Amino acid sequence: MPRSTNSVASRARRKKIIKQAKGYYGRRKNVWTIAKNAVEKAMLYAYRDRKNNKRNFRSLWITRINAGARLHGLTYSEFMAKIKSNNIELNRKVLADLAMNNPEAFEAIVKKIK
Questions:
Q1: Stated pTM of the model
Q2: What is the DSSP letter of 102?
Q3: Helices 32-70 and 103-113, packing angle to 10 deg
Q4: Residues 17, 21, 23, CA angle at the centre, nearest 5°?
Q5: pLDDT at 1
Q6: Which residues contact 93 (CB under 8 A, 6 or more apart)?
Q7: CATH for 8-113?
């Protein structure tokens, strides 16, 4: 009996990759081998950068808290140490949001810890 290839599944698999490559430039969007490589690389970058995104946001929050704390004569490290010692359980995301969008509330926190 001759070998049969499952062309339905092969075509579906290729279509899936080509669909993922939609919007790419040049042959990366419509030539199977090039599109496959481009999509695989893009997936690796996406996986890596989901982790990097968390780092980037944490560093942004720290920068904003530092800026807010320095307006009240504290450094970031002093501010965070006093927050911890006073058992104020606000995370960096919330503190950064307060420092940016609600300076009065941030000032109230600073007065409470001083």
A1: 0.78
A2: -
A3: 60
A4: 155
A5: 74
A6: 57, 61
A7: 1.10.1900.20
Confidence of residue 103 (pLDDT cuts 50, 70, 90): very high
d(CA 37, CA 29): 11
In this structure, the number of other CB atoms found within 10 A of the CB of residue 112 comes to 11
Return the residue matching tokens 């030539």: 31
Q: How far apart are CA 9 and CA 41, in angstroms?
A: 23
Structural contact between residues 6 and 14, judged by C-beta atoms closer than 8 angstroms = no
pLDDT at 3 over 90: no
User: Tens digit of pLDDT for each residue in 53-89?
Assistant: 999 999 999 999 999 999 999 999 999 999 999 999 9
pLDDT at 23 over 90: yes
Query: 């009996």: which residue's tokens?
Result: 1
Q: Report CA 62 to chain centroid distance, whole Å.
A: 15
Residue 78's identity, in one-letter code, is E
